[in-house]
Amino acid sequence: MRRLAALVLLLLAWAMPAAAVDPGEMLADPALEARARDISKDLRCLVCQNQSIDDSDAQLARDLRVLVRERLAAGSSDDEVVDYVVSRYGDFVLLRPPFKLSTYVLWIGPAVIFAGGLLAVVVFYRRRGGVAETAPSPLSAEESRRLERLLDGDGRA
Amino acid sequence: MKRLLFLLPLFAFVVLAGYLALGLTKDPHVLPSVLIDQEVPPFDLPPIKGREAGFRRDDLLGQVSLVNIFGSWCVACRIEHPFLMRIKEERRVPLHGIDWREETLEAGPAWLARFGDPYTLIGDDPRSVAAIAFGVTGAPETFVVDKRGFIRYKHIGPLTPEVWEKTIGPMIEELRRQ
């Protein structure tokens, strides 16, 4: 039992996050390679669409990874590389959509809807609470006298 | 007024449902090309085996032409292939090919030898350099390129006589007049 547990732990320790990057594709310079990985994680695979090119085994994803690395090796900045891919495939290729006019609804929408809901809840409780807390109209002079007599006397009005 | 307020959630639901229903009718693989009305980016592809000339951007200048992305591995390319042959036989328009991602040097030429070669110029693109420059996501795709080397239209999937009649044919006529 102990041995089995140890084996399981060992295997778990071995498990590495799976990535599609082939060792042959990797750049010799670790810093450059790290930048390439970061860029790849944010670029959508155009074939499978819900994976980044870093995760995807699709041929086109592989070719894009190679292209990213070639451009980095040629001295392009991260932004220049991403801009090139976006200029070919549009914002769709970015897994994190940019914050711009056409995506305001996407980014701000949920917050607006949440604020609207919050407002609706507040208004709802305010109104309901308001009804319950309305002070009853004060007693008229006649009513006050009757009340006093009731409290002072022995109950016979 | 109060009654209208009650209808608000229903109204919101209908609008949202409408949007989502519209989304369901669209093919997620058909992406809008950002390259429409953009200049074809520079590329310079070597020839495939058995041909002298490769295919580069400047070959597109001077006349309206079609650029077709194909590969011997691509099943849908065989569907459109007879129609591409017809385009060539009837000399409708220069048709250039990008032989995309062949695994061997022989695969593309063998495919063309077997089914016929409709292309004026062919470039070999095993590593997707030109394909990425054109923003290609799959094969086949066909681009209409004008005289100045600007992409004017992108067709995704097999080229059919219907697409030609409705869109590409009239568009080529129009572009030739410009």
* Strand segment count of chain A: 0
| Mean of residue pLDDT values of chain A | 85
Identify the overall geometry of chain B: elongated
Please give the number of β-strands of chain B.
7
Number of helices of chain A: 6
What count of domains describes the coordinates of chain B?
Answer: 1
* Total DSSP helices of chain B: 5
Strand order of the largest sheet of chain B: 5-4-3-6-7
| Second-tier CATH architecture of the largest domain in chain A | Orthogonal Bundle
- Biggest interface, and residues per chain? A-B, 16 and 20 residues
Helix fraction of chain B, binned, reads 25-40%
CATH fold annotation of chain B: Glutaredoxin
Examine the secondary-structure arrangement and name the CATH architecture of chain B.
Answer: 3-Layer(aba) Sandwich
Oligomer: heterodimer
Question: What order do the helices and strands come in, and which of them pair?
Answer:
The complex is a heterodimer of chains A (157) and B (178).
Chain A: H1 2-14, H2 30-41, H3 59-73, H4 78-89, H5 104-133, H6 141-152
Helix pairs in contact in A: 2-3
Chain B: H1 2-24, E1 44-45, E2 55-56, E3 65-70, H2 75-89, E4 95-100, H3 107-115, E5 122-125, H4 129-133, E6 141-145, E7 151-156, H5 161-177
Parallel strand pairs in B: 3-4, 4-5
Antiparallel strand pairs in B: 1-2, 3-6, 6-7
